TrEMBL record:
The keyword Kinase does not apply. Keywords: Signal. It comes from the Bacteria. Residues 1-19 form the signal peptide. This is ABC transporter substrate-binding protein. It comes from Iodobacter ciconiae.
Amino acid sequence: MKKWILALSMGFIATCSLAALTESPELIVKNVSRDVLEIIKKNDKDPLKARDLVDTRVAPLADYNRMTMLAVGRNWKTATPEQQQALTREFRTMLVRTYFSALSIYKNAQVDVKGTRPGNDASEMSVLTEVSLPGQKPIPLDFSFEKTDTGWKTYDIAVDGISFINNNRNQFNAIIRKDGIEGLIKQLSDRNNAQRNTNK
């Protein structure tokens, strides 16, 4: 269940309402959760249509550059600018596609915002939520936000205390040690292409 909670939450951080530039992180999570779940329920027979509707109705919220940089860790500095762009592109694609794989499973999910927690300074904040399905125990889901020049953006989530970024960093570092930066790009690209072919 936690795997699909993570997948669904990636969708929430991958998108936001067009008004999010002036909204608080707490309100962003509430609005995105409501809008996305409504789209899922109305288009549960056609996930590709749901994906297109979400892309049309909402705009990017996640700081994909920072997310990718944190996930790659110290190896980020060894990558060329072209490799960094490729990593960010493939990482973003992975997030979006993983999210839509979870649509049919979590169309009846309920997301309850429980409050916020201040970060290290005024530019950081976490939104604390719980995600649940009928008859199942809620799972804590925390969104980490940073205030930027273009509004609040999220760069990490924690599912039941487990950081998405840290989890990916461990996997990415293992791939980089074996196959280098190009090997990581290739693996991400291969996964995305395989998923794309499956959804045709």
